[in-house]
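Project standup — Tuesday

K.O.: blocked on the structure for the chain from last sprint. Re-posting the sequence here as requested.
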Amino acid sequence: MRAAILAGIVAGLAFLVAELLLVPMLLGGSAWGPPRMIAAIVLGEEVLPPPATFDGFIVLTAVAFHLVLSILYAVVFALVARTWSLGMAVLAGTLFGLLLYALNFYGMTALFPWFAEARNGVSIFAHALFGAVLGAVYKMRQRVPRVAPAI
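H.V.: unblocked you, prediction finished:
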């Protein structure tokens, strides 16, 4: 369980850093747009840009909510990835991240229509990165029970 929680936190932070860096670099948008979109799930649409400026409370809310979701997703992933190799976990994690992208940006838009605006390559990459990091960290931190050698 600890390995899944840690993996969720690390993967969630990797996702956020990728979004904060790549949205301005590749899309010309504000780095604070994605956190506002996440925070709007909890705080309501009134926190959506414009302006997509920094607001400590909004960013803290977004990070906290995103990390809770990341941990929940990591626990689900860990339930099926327990016996997989590192390579398999990274590959499956990447696919899991892409599945989360599809669910978030196509399925959840019925409840949170502003997610449709963020259907782009950066969001796809950030979700794939989330999954790959999730799989890698989980497998590297997973405790495998040691079996005594047969005599």
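K.O.: great, moving the ticket to review. Residues 2-141 form one domain. The chain has a mean pLDDT of 94.
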